[in-house]
TrEMBL record:
Pfam families: Acetyltransf_3. PANTHER family: GNAT FAMILY, PUTATIVE (AFU_ORTHOLOGUE AFUA_3G00765)-RELATED-RELATED (PTHR43792), N-ACETYLTRANSFERASE DOMAIN-CONTAINING PROTEIN (PTHR43792:SF1). Residues 11-174 form the N-acetyltransferase domain. Gene3D superfamilies: 3.40.630.30. This is GNAT family N-acetyltransferase. It comes from Bacillus swezeyi. It comes from the Bacteria. GO terms for molecular function: acyltransferase activity, transferring groups other than amino-acyl groups.
Length: 176
């Protein structure tokens, strides 16, 4: 059973460890999941391992990562949702969410992202959140807009070699 540092009604957020390689492989080893996050559309086994180690390192250095998420009641792996520093000095974090394709369409991404947005502003004290998506991924565009993100610019994303539409979410004042 995983320990959760954050929980919603259905989702528990944990922290990646080296023992989670099988989960990382189930997620980032699936071309359905990675088709919009790498130039080749899929990650090799070595790239998946590197991705896991990068997430672990992010947590050690900055206290955030794209946290592994689980269906809390049954402890079933869903994917990941979390933060990484975007402009650390300015308090801007990037938010991201990747789900195992069998978990798509069940509302987990929205529930996890809303919890992470709340966590970012209340616990991490982020000033803004940044997000981007592959230019062909219209579902991510709709998802970000539904969460309240506003398009700001296109930005080069090294892993795909493309300009990605980019968005910002500013913290809302209390009571707004």
């Amino acid at each position: 059973m995983k320990d959760y540092f954050l929980q919603t009604k259905r989702i528990g957020f944990s922290i990646w460890s080296k023992e989670d390689l099988n989960l990382a492989e189930a997620l980032w080893g699936d071309p359905d999941v990675t088709r919009y996050i790498s130039a080749e559309g899929e990650l090799t086994a070595e790239e998946v391992k590197d991705r896991l180690l990068m997430e672990i390192n992010q947590y050690q250095e900055h206290g955030v990562q794209y946290f592994p998420i689980f269906e809390a009641e049954e402890n079933v792996f869903i994917g990941c949702c979390g933060l990484r520093p975007y402009d650390f000095k300015s308090g801007i974090y990037e938010i991201g969410c990747h789900l195992i394709h069998t978990m798509w369409g069940k509302g987990y991404a929205g529930e996890a992202a809303r919890a992470m947005i709340d966590y970012a502003f209340k616990e991490i004290k982020a000033n803004k959140l940044f997000a981007g998506h592959h230019p062909e991924n219209s579902a991510s565009q709709k998802f970000l807009e539904k969460l309240g993100f506003h398009y700001t610019h296109d930005e080069f994303y090294q892993p795909t070699g493309l300009q990605h539409p980019s968005y910002v979410l500013k913290q809302q004042p209390p009571g707004s």
